[in-house]
Amino acid sequence: MKLYRTTNGAYVEHDGSYYNVAENSWDALVMHDDLHAYLQSVVADGEAGAEFSSAQILAPIGTQEVWAAGVTYYRSRSARMEEAKSAGGGDFYDRVYSAERPELFFKATASRVAGPGSHVRIRSDAKWNVPEPELTLLTNDRGQIIGYTVGNDMSSRDIEGENPLYLPQAKVYDRSCALGPCVLIGSEPLPATTPIRMEIVRGGAVAFSAEITLAGLKRAPATLVDYLFRDNSFPFGAFLMTGTGIVPPDTFTLKSGDSIRITIDPIGTLENDVIQGR
Ligand code: DO4
Ligand code: MG
User: Fold this and answer.
1) Number of domains comprising the chain
2) CB-ligand 1 contact for 132 (6 Å cutoff)
3) In CATH, what number is assigned to the domain containing residue 200?
4) Are residues 111 and 217 located together in one domain of the fold?
5) Are residues 201 and 97 part of one domain?
6) Residue 44: which H helix or E strand, with range?
7) For 32, phi and psi rounded to 5 degrees?
8) Pairing with 159, which of 25, 81, 85, 200 sits 20 to 30 Å away (CA)?
């Protein structure tokens, strides 16, 4: 079951039909004791609404914070060790990859999140930028995973590579994060064979593409959530990005006008254009 947030309210998709969800606050929706059962009742009681097709799909977020896990795939560890070598910080990435405690960092408030079809941004003072395609968990306030969405953790590699202490500036700025197009509702872990695909289109041609599977994710989503909720409360739940396993080669940087397409079956495709500046 897929849950969408749109300009006409929330919709649940079932067997190709879209049912309007009466709850008009996204936060209240996420707080349902058993969201899956509630949405099943919406489908059972409701009439499929045609208004979905005229609505604009928005990022599936209310007031939740977005957090992110880092260095959870070998490729991220290696790329970051290389990037931080001259700053003397390379070793930290190897250490966090094998440590028991994961790297977790604050990524975005809802106002910094781009929805599907809108644009993500490159910082105006950064020269080397990449998207990071990440399976993203939605939890409720009790730290239970209630769904999955597609995330893009936009990153300025020159800034984080200059000094690991610059990480918040490399990661957190307006439109540095994209989420969507929907939340796949469910708490069952996605199979390890689930593919994550990314394609970057420039001037009508594919400038970069890659694919991995969740088999490369070193840490269990539930463990990441467990660490996030230690001594932290999230009254309306939280989003947690699970890290990237795809890093383009060091010669690649995003440009204004690029289009980023990230697909995680069975959630869907998150597509955003890129701009540098406002
Ligand atoms: O430690 C830097 C950030 C890592 C990250 O965002 C990732 O691995 O996805
Ligand atoms: Mg990341």
Assistant:
1) 2
2) yes
3) 3.90.850.10
4) yes
5) yes
6) helix 35-45
7) -55, 140
8) 200
pLDDT at 84: 85
Ligand 1 pocket, 153 CB below 6 A? yes
Question: Which residue from 155, 171, 172 has its CB within 8 A of the most atoms of ligand 1, so it is best to mutate?
Answer: 155
Out of 73, 80, 217, mutate this one to test ligand 1's pocket (max ligand atoms within 8 Å of CB): namely: 80
Averages of pLDDT over runs of 10 residues in the chain (278 residues) are: 95 94 90 94 86 93 98 92 83 93 98 98 97 98 97 97 95 98 95 98 98 98 98 97 97 98 97 92
Instruction: Name which of 241, 211, 227 is nearest 65 in CA terms.
Output: 241
Q: How far is the CA of 70 from the centre of ligand 2 (A)?
A: 5
Within this chain, do residues 45 and 134 fall inside the same structural domain, yes or no? Answer: no
Name all contacts of 33-37 with Cβ < 8 Å and 24+ positions apart.
35/140, 35/146, 35/147, 35/185, 36/1, 36/146, 36/185, 36/186, 36/187
Can you tell me which atom of ligand 1 is nearest the CA of 241?
A: 9
Helix/strand/coil for 195: strand
Name the residue at shortest CA distance from atom 3 of ligand 1.
Answer: 70
Q: Are residues 79 and 54 part of one domain?
A: no
Range of the domain at 20: 2-58
